[in-house]
Amino acid sequence: MARAGTHRATLTRHQHELGSSSRATRAPDPRLLGILHREHIGVSHDLLEFESWLEPPQPVATLMISLEDPLRTERGTLPPAWIAGLDDRPEVVETGGRHTEVDLKLTAVGAHLVCGMPMRALSGQIVPLDEVFGSRTATLAEQLREMSDWDARFDLVERLLLERIEASAGPDPFVAEAVARLQASDGLLRIGRLAAQLRVSRRHLTTRFRDQIGLPPKTFARLLRFDSVRRRMAADPASWADVAAACGYSDQSHLNREFRELAGTTPAAFLARRLPEGGTVGDGITFVQDAGGRSA
Predict the structure, then answer these.
(1) Which of 43, 81, 178, 263 lies in disulfide reach of 129, CB 3.0 to 4.6 Å?
(2) Where are the domains of the chain?
(3) pLDDT digits over 39-76, tens only?
(4) How far apart are CA 42 and CA 23, in angstroms?
(5) Which fold has domain 10-166?
(6) Both ends of the chain: CA-CA distance in Å?
């Protein structure tokens, strides 16, 4: 059941030439403020005219629970419930037919609290959830699958996250402050200046940041800038030169290079692939990726 005094999940239906889907969204428990990057999302795709979607890297971690057909990437078939640390490389995810999932995004600091481990161990990885949260989550997908109500599903996942937070030692104030300053600048704050503001060496900052967040601060700032571009494109598309200048790129060519590296395509092609309900079609995109450091 939904929590008393809170909003219930909002259901929306999307139908267009590329397929149809329904989406449930709900604001999370206030105690998860700073832990979750956005609202809870549950998605059910029942008809798709494409076979994969594109996941560019984001400055957040992903926790996903699949309730129907398993998802696949170049790593192979993904587990029913998994968590992925921060990464600076894109991923193409195959849908495999009908699929329904709970999709949560954890903030960089929130992921460290919830996982209770150095996030460098999860950087660039997709790991079965029970390997991080323990054996009690081995049947989480089955439990959610048996529930027909999105509020009940969101409630169960929330209880799990709150238990993890209550058992944690709390955030490292130093790293949390470093993350907050980078986020406030949308990644434009130079790392040398950030270290000076925090009165530490750049090496000390990088070591502590990478241990808890999973990526060096310079890479995290790069993802923040790219995320800023994507938000600007979605909210108020402008000339690419203006977007490049506003988001800290030296010129439009620099922005194009970033898109090719982080999204596997050009800015214009990325926009053309966007779906009305969110997400990006991944069909026809291939990447040349490092063989090391990635596992399912």
Answers:
(1) 81
(2) 10-166
(3) 999 998 877 777 888 999 999 999 999 998 888 998 89
(4) 6
(5) Jelly Rolls (2.60.120)
(6) 33
Which residue, 92, 89, 88, 71, is CA-closest to 80? 71
Q: How far apart are CA 87 and CA 214, in angstroms?
A: 8
Give CA 198 to chain center in angstroms.
27
Q: What is the layout of strands, in order, in the sheet containing 10-16?
A: 10-16, 19-26, 40-48, 99-106, 61-66, 81-84, 126-128
Could you tell me the two tokens for 68?
């129907």
Structure-token pair, residue 190: 């130079």
What SS3 state is found at 265?
coil
Tabulate helix, strand, coil % of the chain (nearest 5).
40, 20, 40
Which among 27, 23, 30 has a CA at the least distance from the CA of 8?
27
Residues 6+ apart with CB under 8 A from 204: 195
Pairing of strands 99-106, 91-94: unpaired
CA distance 43 to 103: 8
d(Cα 3, Cα 142) in Å, to the nearest integer?
A: 22
Q: What is the pLDDT of residues 167-199, one digit of tens each?
A: 988 889 999 999 999 999 999 999 999 999 999
In angstroms, rounded to a whole number, what is the distance separating the alpha carbons of residues 125 and 132?
A: 12
pTM score: 0.90
